[in-house]
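To whoever picks this up:

The parser on our side crashed when reading a file containing two proteins. I've narrowed it down to the boundary between the first structure block and the second sequence. Both blocks are reproduced below exactly, byte for byte. First block:
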Amino acid sequence: MRFLVDAQLPAAMARWLAANGHDAQHVADVGLSSAADSLIWQYAAGQNSIIVTKDEDFAQRRILSPHGPSILWLRVRNTRKRELLSRFASQLPQVVASFERGETLVEMI
């Protein structure tokens, strides 16, 4: 799967995804770290990437739009990077399965 990790999440998440067999970039990797949500949305759609974000705006936009990138919405409290990546790793198989079934908005709690 191809992922685009949003600015409020660590670049280490994109690196971890890439190390585990996924195509992943952080918005900083592609010059979008300060970009408006609409530009990130367009970029992800053009690259067929799933946006990984803590931003509820992307989730709401996905609900209202029949087209566009899929969204992995992380609804977790602020935490240390190690804990975040550990939680992410434990839930990723279910997340991938959800996207493979055709879901376009997946929440990780």
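<<boundary where parser fails>>
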Amino acid sequence: MAKVETKSHTEIPSPPPLQEVALGEVQFGDFREKSIERLRLLWDQRNLLAKVAGLGLLVGVLIAFAIPTEYRAAVQLMPPDNQSNAGMLFAALAAKAGGGSGGLGAIAGDLLGIKNSGALFIGILRSRTVADRVVQRFDLKRIYRTKLEEDARAELAENTALSEDRKSGIVTIMVSDRDPQRVAAIAQAYVDELDRLVAELSTSAAHRERVFLEGRLKEVKQELDHAAQDLSQFSSKTAAIDIKEQGRAMVEAAAVVQGQLIAAQSELKGMEAIYTANNVRVRSVQARIAELQRQLDKLGGSSTATNNQSDATGDSIYPSIRQLPLLGVTYFDLYRRNKILEVVYETLTQQYELSKVEEAKELPSVKVLDAAIVPERKSFPPRLLLVALCGLLAVAGAILWIFACLRWERVDSADPGKVLAREILASLNSKMPWATPNGSRVQGMTHGVWTRMVRRRDSGRDAE
């Protein structure tokens, strides 16, 4: 039987060529040798690196303590609770549609123009009016050492950070300053100025109604005072205190006097039948009748006196019955005007108080969540970080300098670039103060100064 030969489908990877393996090993060896050489160079220059690191740390300490210390104070404001019903309804629907996430509601609210009062508060806090009030309140022109209000306002804006949390609506005011007491006072001043400016700029319907009612109250109060003064002057001049009651009292008094007069006349007729006209009793009754008639005429008044109101107080302190109707027309006109103004004033006063309550409800109140407190720790500068950073930069610069010097030494002296660099350095060196003057007056002056400095330094060393 013939044998059937089978071939396996599994392919065995072929080993890499020996040349590639050898090239990789050579490259790795070169890299390792260069690394070791660089580390040895750094180790040889360890004293220089230590000095540079110390110098860098010293410079970092000087810089860290030369930078002025700053403190921060923060104030957090609660979002106002006077959002419109439409905005609240849409926010609820958007939150329900978005599965409770606030992102959709915020984006949709921005697209539809539904803004909350938090953004309004931030806009007011960034206004020039608030900045000018804060600058004048703390005399920041003197503190910031600026001559212009605009410069002080700009520096205050740089030291103030305003932000709003889109989810909670909490507004944060962050202020930076060199004085911890002043930074807390400035942060609180922002809240005070915000509250005052919001109250001044409120343009709600309740505010406009309150302003209108306030003006009307002043006008009605003046009219009421004039009406009361006219009524009092008229009553004082004509003795017309209460026309209705006065007329009733005077009619009753006239009836009583007239009844007494009729009784006295009847008594006189009876006495005349018995006594003579010269009798004492007859004369007494006649005198009483004359007095009663005079009183009755005074109460009733004469027909000529009705045409002249000045006669009302001529013989009596009260007006007569004939004068009361004429006086009553003017009196009741003044009295009715006075009463109408009193009712109007009372009604306007009630509406004014109600409008004040409504305005207080609609006014966006500034509610402080976290008040500003005096900071106990500085916020800037981070001194340890600055010192460490200066030290690291100094060491890194020294390492780069060492590698650059090594590379410079390895460059051939006949290299055109190296020759050009040496020429440039020589030219710059000839211009330096320590170089011999070459006819230039400026270089001669600088060389003289440099020579004196070197002599003083050498003399100081010799003295030591």
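After patching the parser it read the second block fine. The two ends are 115 Å apart (CA to CA). The chain is about 70% helix and 5% strand.
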